[in-house]
Amino acid sequence: MKKILIVEDGQKWSVQYQQDLGGYEVSLIIAERADEARRQFEVNPDVAAIVMDGCLFSEAPNTLELVKEFRVKGYTGPIIANSSDYNKELQEAGCDHTCKYDSKGFIPDQLIQLLDLKHK
Q: What pTM did the predictor assign?
């Protein structure tokens, strides 16, 4: 089963992702804060993808260093920039994908395609 680290402070989105991907062979690991994301990344070094919000409980982007940190630690898998306003900055920090159509709602479909997820 593939693991996906979702770094997102919007509970609405976390719930939607869990619902939309519930029928697939995937385990979602939700982190609402940067320290929690770091901890989950350490405990789950085998994540297949990371979905990165740009702002966690902030109006300004505060996850750019987190993306850089994951890359420095050797993570080579896909990191999807998932911000309403800061996808360009997230890409410059090390994300290699952005949410389709700059909409968080397309993340499940994007993950299904990107990771070739299979139904349970």
A: 0.96
